[in-house]
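tokens incoming
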């Protein structure tokens, strides 16, 4: 069962990402230890697409590795 968009946003925020608003339902998440940004689109109650879940997982993995 896919995660909800709000769950992905909560994971990013918990890891220290900061949200910047975008157009429409898009939000841009930045972190000082992550090169670039993560863009999440969709309503909070919508199911996340698999590519969105993978993008968040990769970003969190990179942040975790940078702490070590």
């Amino acid at each position: 069962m896919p995660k909800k968009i709000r769950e992905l946003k909560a994971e990013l925020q918990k890891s220290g990402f900061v949200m910047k608003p975008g157009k429409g339902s898009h939000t841009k998440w930045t972190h000082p230890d992550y090169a670039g940004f993560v863009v999440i689109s969709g309503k909070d109650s919508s199911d996340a697409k698999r590519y969105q879940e993978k993008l968040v997982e990769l970003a969190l993995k990179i942040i975790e590795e940078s702490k070590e």
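note: Helices lie at 5-14, 50-67.
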